[in-house]
């Protein structure tokens, strides 16, 4: 039987059933101890992050529709995959995102307005990774960042900053990419290098079903999780809409990576409920039934049911709603206040050292601009 | 005893050995320097440029990589993020294209994208050019792809002393540098001063007057500097005084040195192995024309490889600008009788 990238016969780690029942399946057994590290407060944190980012996501899309952003990249539907994996990182870890991992950045300390500033066309990223929880820049050339992550992880090895046996100190890398990016040569090369040097690294592949308009089945005849084995690394498929599976499996593989047991690949089965970006119209290529099927497996509804079954206070749920509204409103307000940098900035930081060509061009431009002021005066 | 009083260690080295000595010095001086490439470790590189370095500095400093150029450059980006100074070897010019995306879209831009927070002190060593009778993809001159990309510096070396000094300068630079090595000159020997402090040497961006002259300015870089020097010597027999300038840096270009020469000679010839379309020579011809038009006695002349895919190596002698084609260019710049008719007359 020909395999298919969406073939669900591949063992898929799931701890939380779609109805919110905690029922780890067979594939989840080895990961349950990692789930057991979590406290009730952690469960609530997951819920809070997921609700807040979804509300923010909607607000950002609104900002784009109102002409305030050039583009928005929605993350609706992928919150569990992102929140669970981000929570599994430790402060010393480095995160290489693709461009849809807004909540991962937020949880690492990035101000989401930095993302809005970029999509408003005022920066090309602009944040300093080391000052933002080691959350590196978004990479729009798909899969380029997988190699950067692998190189960074090699640097950790060169520095002796990993595999010392102290999990509080040992460093690791997690890199996010998707089903579409997996077809890029860079992704394969990163997997080759990582396996070859046994880098302390987790490849977190969010299979959200679609690379703009092209289904995951066009990218791969084989489930992505099986590819990891081909490259020689541990590999798991998880239910990407189960935040506990995302946390537990990522935590295990990051811990193993830190301990010197090499890289791993995680394929998180999830769904891009929204458009690829605000420039996209998914009704042209997607079936309504498919969407409905995935909406029924919504990661937030699932976790909410779990919390309610465990008797969470209504006041907590209400507080989270309020916090989400406040967060989105604050982001909106600050996004509107952001101003364009001075035009001279275009010449800054092209090079670290003085460059004769740019010195000349900049001087010419300044004289040119000044000539208008003289003409007016 | 000051640095200047120190005994100078001068050795006669081939150009390849001079690069090796520069790499060894850089590895010794800065433990953040790491070498990445295919076959550079145990083998010491297909041209032996890295010979013995892995034995001396270990497999963590001199890294044999999987066979993947994008992988080499992409992981170098990650290492640079981590504070390393990666020196990547591209085995042959024609194999740089798989790494092109990482070089122009990532390496060149990350300092800019991070508003200066992240530096990319990556050196990319590229053996380039023809004249060695090699197989396809082993004789190309891809420098113009990179001079066109802002954020990159591009240099080409022509002799053992520059090879030694400039590899150290490239590695010490906080900007990414494409370092082109003229593979047909790898075995050319010359005395090399090995003790120089980088702070005492000329900046990497400067051009160098190799042969002073008064009638024509002749620019070349990499493998053609020797050919241009030979041409200048031959022209002397005809009573023509040619000033040969080794560009050394292709991006940025040292226009001050070129302009000073052209203002005296009024005539400019630019020679390179790469084809003329969109090339380094065209850019310099346009810029020099803009900068010192009124000093020019003749339109700048380009002497280049043809705009064809690199031909089979048995035919490369017809493709590459040799001494005669360069002299022909000098003649044209002087407005002398059309050299093409002289070709027909049996040049």
UniProtKB/TrEMBL annotation, chain A:
Dehydrogenase E1 component domain: residues covered: 48-335
EC primary class: oxidoreductase
Listed cofactors: thiamine diphosphate
Signal sequence coordinates: none
Catalysed reaction equations from the record: N(6)-[(R)-lipoyl]-L-lysyl-[protein] + 3-methyl-2-oxobutanoate + H(+) = N(6)-[(R)-S(8)-2-methylpropanoyldihydrolipoyl]-L-lysyl-[protein] + CO2
Pfam families in the cross-refs: E1_dh
Keyword Oxidoreductase belongs to the record: yes
GO BP terms, alphabetized: branched-chain amino acid catabolic process
Single annotated GO MF: magnesium ion binding
Keywords recorded for this protein, A-Z: Oxidoreductase, Pyruvate, Thiamine pyrophosphate
EC code: 1.2.4.4
SUPFAM superfamilies recorded: Thiamin diphosphate-binding fold (THDP-binding)
Matches recorded under Gene3D superfamilies: 3.40.50.970
Entry's family note: Belongs to the BCKDHA family.
Function noted in UniProt: The branched-chain alpha-keto dehydrogenase complex catalyzes the overall conversion of alpha-keto acids to acyl-CoA and CO(2). It contains multiple copies of three enzymatic components: branched-chain alpha-keto acid decarboxylase (E1), lipoamide acyltransferase (E2) and lipoamide dehydrogenase (E3).
Stated name of the protein: 2-oxoisovalerate dehydrogenase subunit alpha
Source organism of the structure: Orlajensenia leifsoniae
